[in-house]
Amino acid sequence: MGILQQLNSTPVYLICGCIVAFVAVVCVVFMVRAWRAGVAIGMDRTKMKRAITASATFSVLPSVGILLGVIALSGSLGTPWPWLRLSVIGALHYETQVAQAAAEQVGMTTLSASEMTPSAFATIALLMSVCIMWGMVLSVFFNKRYTKKLGSGSGEGKSGGFGDLAMTAMFIGLVSAYIGSYVGGFVSGDGLGRFGGDWTPLVVVAAACLAMAGFVYLSEKKNMAWLDSFSIAGSMIVGMAAAVLVGAAA
């Protein structure tokens, strides 16, 4: 039995499916409790129904990005594991980056089924899980204090503070590192320092950036704030389409 057959086997589906089902039940329970609490304090039922409908509607297109992430990772990690990660607590940009980084550390040249081994998958899955758990752990100890600070209108809650700046700097550094690696690969792709490497990643980056800029422009300048929820998924689709077009042209 090949590695993908093992990762897509019935036991793995059952394990991951049970966890996803549990989380779904918890969501339904909280939704019912929220509805009852709204009724208890006298909220308008019509407005609550509209809020539910709007939330469900605006959750559809952003979830396309999650589906794309599952599809992208399923070719190397099977379907159940990416489905579990991106359904419960994972973030699309996080899962793909950590999986690729972990694959490189275990000696794989790329995240692919052809190089995947059981030990490599165990390492990748462990890192994908452990590295993202600290948000929950730290929330247990510090979220109450942070919420009070937000409510008081001081500190980080007033001006954004160090947390927002650090997060912005981190993402800028991360994006710069990836783009730098793409440029470096293109410049020295032939091993002789001449332009001859793969320029597909650069085209994808440019297309996705232009798409995101378009979403930001429409959202901020044209009063279409609802597009914020769709910007990541839309930019991903544009980037993937650009990759397909470049591959077909080559």
Describe this structure in words.
There is one protein chain. It is built from 12 helices and no strands. By secondary structure, the chain is an all-alpha fold. It has 2 domains: 3-130, no CATH class; 143-249. Helix 11 packs antiparallel against helix 12 (231-249). The radius of gyration is 22 Å and the shape is globular. Residues 153-158 have low confidence and may be disordered.
Envelope shape: globular
Radius of gyration: 22 Å
Which whole number gives the mean pLDDT? 83
Our count of domains comes out at 2
**What portion of residues is helical?**
over 70%
Strand content: under 5%
Helices, by number, come to 12
| Strand and helix order | HHHHHHHHHHHH
Q: Kindly, what is the distance between the CA atoms of the first and last residues, rounded to a whole number of angstroms?
A: 35 Å
Low-confidence stretches: 153-158
Q: Please summarize the sheet with the most strands.
A: none
Structural class: mainly alpha
**How many beta-strand elements?**
0
Question: Notable features of this structure?
Answer:
mainly alpha, 2 domains, 12 helices, 78% helix
